[in-house]
Amino acid sequence: TLSAGQKRRLGLARLMVTGRSIWVLDEPTVSLDTDAVALFAAAVTAHLNANGSALIATHIDLGLDAGSLDLAPYRSATDLRIGASDEAFL
Prior knowledge:
By secondary structure, the chain is an alpha+beta fold. It contains 3 helices and 2 strands; from the N terminus they run H-E-H-E-H. Helix content is 39%, strand content 11%.
C-alpha cells in the first residue's frame, strides 16, 4: 500500500508525462516533503515556460517563485459592476 505522499508523487509524475496543456490541481503539495515540493515547483515552472497553463487551488506554499506566476492580465481586468477584479473572487 502506498502512503499519501507516495500517491501524491505518483499522481504528479503521471501528470507530467501526459502532455496535457492545462493542469487543474487541488492541493498538489499536501503530503509532500520538501524535496518533492521543490520538484513540483520545477515541473510547474517548466510547464508554464512551455506555454502550458495551471489552475492551482491551495492554502499552503507551493515552492513557486512569484515571478513565475503572471497575474497581471487578471489584475488589469475590471468589471464596472463589482469594481476591482480581485473582488470577483471573494
